[in-house]
Amino acid sequence: MENKAIVCKELTKQFGDFKAVDKISFDVDQGEIFGFLGANGAGKTTAMRILCGLSFPSSGEATVAGFNVYKQQEQIKKHIGYMSQKFSLYDNLTILENIEFYGGVYGVSRPEIKKRSQELVAALGLENETKKLVGSLPLGWKQKLAFSVAVFHRPKIVFLDEPTGGVDPVTRRQFWDMIYEAAATGITVFVTTHYMDEAEYCNRISIMVDGRVEAMDSPADLKKQFNTHSMDEVFYQLARGAKRKSD
Amino acid sequence: MGSVIVKNIIKTYGDVKAVDDVSFEIQKGELFGLIGPDGAGKTSLFRILTTLLLADSGTASVEGCDVVKDYRAIRNRVGYMPGRFSLYQDLTVEENLNFFATIFGTTIRENYTLIKDIYDQIKPFSNRRAGKLSGGMKQKLALCCALIHKPDVLFLDEPTTGVDVVSRKEFWEMLDQLRQQQITIVVSTPYMDEAKLCDRIALMQKGRIMSIDKPAAIVSSFPGTLFAVKADDIYKLLQDLRSDAAVESCYAFGEFMHLTLAADGDSENEVKRIAEKYNPQHLEVQRITPNIEDSFIRLMQEQAGSEALKQVADGK
């Protein structure tokens, strides 16, 4: 149990008589890169909100970084990082201000913030840009910075919600290099994406359809199971039967 | 004469060149793709061509009408589906469609055949407010609204962004049917795998067109031989090969990595010999045909490499 970053047992979220998340069960290991895929409206966002401590489940059990999703939401929030394509950094703060802000919010000490931010900007090659507004950075840089900020407080798990949407193919791969580096230091990565080639970079993926996890395995084994060479085809076979099309 | 003609268009915002001297011509009935990431200049081009934005310089015409002088005529003849959902959220599906038909001086009935196949899929929800529709259905409604006045040219700005594989596939099937109606379609997408579904594509990056041609021609102009390599610990092998002098470029691609050699060799054994220095388990190497994304990455690298040269060339 201690080695599991996330444990879900029959986790369910119901709105009225609509089961947005319907008895999903899975474990994610510490240091694993776990791809959380699904059709639009399959219930990914709802499930992620529960795992991030932002919403209570209706029934079932789950722990994130060892903390209970019903009783220890605040502890969960402290031990995870989060970034999404839609919102990550404050455009009208500088790079350094954003880093200091997030470090402060997560309770990283001042001397430690100073030390880590120097390392961070050096690793990204942004030493000369620290006083620039984040809004003036190209999207690719912004997303790389957002990821570094999301793991700045050394969380156990980082949740990435479509982190590479709209990013060019070269930067997308640099972004995945950063994901691999983070995973190598023991951080668990929980990631959603619409790029099927990125699904292949995950150790394991799950595919949600109509609120349920319909498939979960390594990309290679899933392709074997569905007798195809393309992840696209696996996804298509599973999701085309979806009854729900609502978000 | 081309259906859409763009000549030396430049558009800057402050000191950012959003569109940097872009020219192309699209034929009547062609399905033309602008392929590139955010910041490539796709949306600015769409807005210029739909007369919603003025270029700094250059000229453009749509169906023979100038985008500046004849903007009123253009607005009647094009359909535009912007990247951000921009129908009326508080109106129902049917009210939205009726509204767009009315402002273009037509009726739903008059052009119903054009949208029938698409509208049938959302018809069960015709009384639902547009704001309550799912992503895939909003997209279908937006397409119907852009088509209801039977435009000569259809502009679709990233219609499939953020949409899952199934809906994307359905959407491209709809476009395929529309192209048979002789409507010129200009579509943009950040998904490189969608490029092959277009008649011709322009690969764009940072306001410039890197390459413009039929998808097959772009792929076949890929210089050198491309290999796909796979092993158990692929990330370690990727890093090892990247730092190897015999390897020109090497990047992850799905379950494989794609690799080119510095001295253009075309033998799989050569690649195996290099990789085996790093003791990979279950090594697999095969020659492969590049795809659009490989070409895009290649062009980006070439452009970055020739940035310095270009400055010299520009100075001439």
Shape call of chain A: globular
Number of strands of chain A: 10
**Order of adjacent strands in the largest pleated sheet of chain B:** 6-7-8-3-9-10
Q: Which class do the helix and strand fractions of chain A yield?
A: alpha/beta
Number of helices of chain B: 11
CATH superfamily of the domain at 4-89 and 156-239 in chain A: P-loop containing nucleotide triphosphate hydrolases
Indicate the CATH architecture of the largest domain in chain B.
3-Layer(aba) Sandwich
Backbone structural class of chain B: alpha/beta
Radius of gyration of chain B: 23 Å
What are the SSEs and their pairings?
The complex is a heterodimer of chains A (247) and B (316).
Chain A: E1 4-15, E2 18-29, E3 33-38, H1 44-51, E4 59-64, E5 67-68, H2 73-79, E6 80-84, H3 95-105, H4 110-124, H5 139-150, E7 157-161, H6 169-184, E8 188-192, H7 196-199, E9 204-209, E10 212-217, H8 219-225, H9 231-239
Parallel strand pairs in A: 3-8, 3-9, 6-7, 7-8
Antiparallel strand pairs in A: 1-2, 1-4, 4-5, 9-10
Helix pairs in contact in A: 3-4, 5-6
Chain B: E1 4-13, E2 16-26, E3 31-35, H1 42-49, E4 57-62, E5 65-66, H2 71-77, E6 78-81, H3 93-103, H4 112-122, H5 135-147, E7 153-156, H6 165-179, E8 184-189, E9 200-205, E10 208-213, H7 215-220, E11 226-230, H8 234-242, E12 247-253, E13 256-261, H9 268-276, E14 284-288, H10 292-305, H11 307-315
Parallel strand pairs in B: 3-8, 3-9, 6-7, 7-8
Antiparallel strand pairs in B: 1-2, 1-4, 4-5, 9-10, 11-13, 11-14, 12-13
Helix pairs in contact in B: 3-5, 4-5
